[in-house]
Amino acid sequence: MNAHRRLPHQLGVAELSAAFAHGELTARQATEAYLARIDSQDAKVNSYLHVTAHAALDAATASDARRAAGKALGPLDGIPIALKDNIDVAGVPTTAGIAVRRGRLAHSDAFVVQRLKRAGVVILGKLNMHEAALGATNANEAYGVCHNPHRHGFTPGGSSGGSGAAVAAGLCAAALGTDTLGSVRIPAAYCGVAGFKPTYGLVSTRGTVPLSWTLDHVGPLARKVEDLGLLLDAMAGFDSECAESRARTTGDTRYAGPYSQRLDGLVIGRVVGLEAVPLQPGVIAAFDRAIDTLRSLGATIIDVRFDGYDFTPLRLQALLTIEAEAAVVHADDLAADPDGFSETFRTFVGWGARQPAHKLAAAYRAVADVQLIARRALAQAPVLALPTAPHEAFAFADPVPHVQADLTSLANMARIPSATVPMGRGDTGLPVGLQLLAGEFQDALVMRVAAAYEAASASYVAPD
Amino acid sequence: MNAHRRLPHQLGVAELSAAFAHGELTARQATEAYLARIDSQDAKVNSYLHVTAHAALDAATASDARRAAGKALGPLDGIPIALKDNIDVAGVPTTAGIAVRRGRLAHSDAFVVQRLKRAGVVILGKLNMHEAALGATNANEAYGVCHNPHRHGFTPGGSSGGSGAAVAAGLCAAALGTDTLGSVRIPAAYCGVAGFKPTYGLVSTRGTVPLSWTLDHVGPLARKVEDLGLLLDAMAGFDSECAESRARTTGDTRYAGPYSQRLDGLVIGRVVGLEAVPLQPGVIAAFDRAIDTLRSLGATIIDVRFDGYDFTPLRLQALLTIEAEAAVVHADDLAADPDGFSETFRTFVGWGARQPAHKLAAAYRAVADVQLIARRALAQAPVLALPTAPHEAFAFADPVPHVQADLTSLANMARIPSATVPMGRGDTGLPVGLQLLAGEFQDALVMRVAAAYEAASASYVAPD
Questions:
Q1: pLDDT score for B459
Q2: Is 0.95 exceeded by the ipTM?
C-alpha cells in the first residue's frame, strides 16, 4: 500500500517519514490533519488536556523548510506526536493530572523532549492521565474521564490513558507515557496499540513529574513496533544530570528496524505459574495463539516460571515505596492545598508516608530482589512472553480489578525492558496485549521479537 | 632488595607471590610465619577474633603441592590473608562483631571468598570489627578493643579496624573489609596502609552480613597498592545472585600492575571547599605535600568543589537509611535477644527504624543525588584528591569526632571507586591517608594514580 493512499492519521511514524521523504506529504499537512482530527474527534475521547496548535504548526513549517533545504534531521523530523501531561515542555502547563497543578507552566523541556525536539518532532499537545500517575483507569476527577476509543464508557487504562487513547484513535502519530508498574503498557494493551518500557536508566526521566523515582520509566506508544524503535533511538542516552541514568553510551545500539521476520534459533519462555492472577478466558486463548505464532516463526518455546515471585505481596511492597516517594514529590502541594488532590490520592499517599521506616526499607529490599527472580527466569530463556494485562478494558461503572498491574509490574521492579503488542481481541471484543521481556539493556532484542510477532499477527486495528 | 632477605611478614602479596615462584619460600612457610606472629604479637593488638590455623596450613600445603606440580593458580596462590568478621567462610563463625552472633557458623562461603579460594588464597582467620559495622572506632564491647599497632590505646579506625590493624602489624599479607561510609578506608588511613572501595556493584557483597545493602561495599586492604589490584582482579565480577551486582563482564579490566610511574597528561582535581569539615593542620600539610608530589609526577592540578554537597546533613541522611536497613537485617536477633547488642546500637537502629516512611524516602533521594554531585565534579577532572580522614587516629579515652567519615562517605553515596594510600604522618606522628576518586567503573584509573603516588612517596611504614 502506498502511504499517500491513506490519510495522514492512518500512517505510523515510519510511514509518515517515508511520505515526507518522497514528497507525498508535508509535515505541515500532517500536522494540520492531526489538529483537525483532534478538533473533530477528541471531544468524545478526551485524550488531550492541552493542544499546542500554534507551536506545532511552527515546528512543522520549520521541519518542511529544513527538508526543502536538504537538511532534514532524520526519521522523526516533522512527525506529530503528543506527550503525557507529566512530561515538561517549556512554556506549557504540566498538570500531571493533578488539580493543584492546573496551569502550572514548565520552565524547561524534559530530557526526552530535548532529544525529540532535536530530532525534529512536532509536539501536538499534552495528554490526559490518571491523577499523579497513581492508578490505571484514567477516571480523572479534575480533568475528566478519558475514554477507550474502542468502546465509550470503558477505561483506556492508565496511568498513560490519554497516550493509549490518542494513539489508538489516530490523534497523534505516536505518544510518550510513563510507566511505574505498567502505566505505558496497560493503556497500550487496552487500546490495542504497541508500547514499550525500556531498561531502567536507559531513558532519562529528568523533567517528568515523578510518581516514584525508583520505579518510573518514560516510554513510547505507537501503532507499529518499528515506530517505538524510532522513538527509542532518539530518547535513549546517558544523562549526567539524572541520578537514575545508567545508559553508558549513546548510539551504539539501534532499536529501530529493519527487523528480521523470523525468530529461528531463539528460545522464548512462556511464563507459567500465573494461577495467582485470574486471567480472563479470552486472554488465555489469545495468549495461546500468540505462542503458536511465535513458534511458527521459528522460536523454541519452553515453560518458565518466576520462582519466588508472589504477585500480590510484591505489588503491595512496590506500592508502599511509591506512596512514600509520592509523598516526598508532592509534599509542598499537599501541605499548601490538600484539596488540590483527590481524597483517594491523599488517603493512599498519607498512609504510605506514615509507615515506619523499617517497613519501607524492607519493601525496597523486596523490590530490589525481583531483579534476582527475573535473572533466574531469564537464565532459562533470553526472552519471556506473558499477557500484558489479565483482562480486557472494563467499564468505568464496574469495580476496578486489583490485578491490573500484576503482570506488568515485575519488569519495573526487575528494571528490564518490556514491550506490549496487540494480540487480537478478548472475550467481549476489546484488544488484549502480548508482553515480551528480556534482560537488562536487551531492549533491542525485545523490539526485534515484538516486530516479528506483529508482522505475523493481527497487529493494530483502528477503532470503528 | 631480594624478597628472601626479608621476613615473610614484611612481604606484600606480589612480593610473596614472586618469592613462591622463585622457590625462595613456600606457602606453608609463609603461613607458619604469619601464624607464629599472630600467636606472639596479636595479644596486644587484638585484631583476630578467630584464627583458622588448621585450615590455613592445609590450604598452604595444597598450594605448595599445586606449585610443585606446575599447576599454581596465579598470583594469589598460597597468599595468607584474613577477613573482616562479617564475611562468611563456610564452617567458621561470622559474628559481625555482635555478641548475639557469637559462635554462629556460616553455611557457605561469601562470593568473594569463593573467588579468592578459587585463586588459591590461604585464609588465616577472621578479624575484629566495630559492632555490626556501625561505627568507626572498633571499641567492641563484646569482643574487646582492637588497638592501632602504631600506638596502643588508640583506635585503628573502623568499622574494619581489625583489618587495618592486622595488615599494618604484619599479621596477614592483606585483608578484606567492608565499607559503608568509609569503613575500609578510615582504618587503612589510621593504620598507615592502602585500602580500596570499588565502584558499587563491581564486587558482590553476597555472603557478608549487611549493614546497609544500598551502601555496603567489600574492599581490600594491603601494604602496597599493587596488592590491592591483585585482590580486586580476583574479587570483581558479575554475580547473578546479588541484586546489587552491576559488573557487566569479568576479566576485561585488570586492576593489578605493572603501573606507570608517571601521570603526564592527567588532570587531577584537588578538592577544595572542605571548610565545613575541620581538618587537622598536620592533615592539611600532608595533603599539600601530596598534591605537590602528584604535580611532580606530571599531573595538572586544578581546584574542584563538590557543589551542593553538605557534609553533615548528607551524612545524617545516609545514616538514617543505614539504621533503617540495619533494623531489617537484624530484626530477628533484635526481637529474640536485644541484650545481644550494645545499647548504643539498639538506640541508633531503633530510632531510625521508627522514623516515618516519607522521611526515609527523602533520605534515599538525597543520597542518590550525590551521584549527580560527583558527576559534576568529575566532569572537571577525571580524578579527584582529598584527605581520607580529617585527622589522625585518636585515643579511645578521647571523644569520637563526628566528622570521621565526612570525607569518605561521598564515594559510597556516589557509588564511585575510592582508594586511600599513606601520605606520611600528621601532627602527633600517626599515619594519615590520601584519598583518590574517579568515575563509576574507573577503578583501574584510581589504582594507577594511587600506585604512582605510592611509588613517589613515603608509602607504608611498619609500626615500631
A1: 79
A2: no
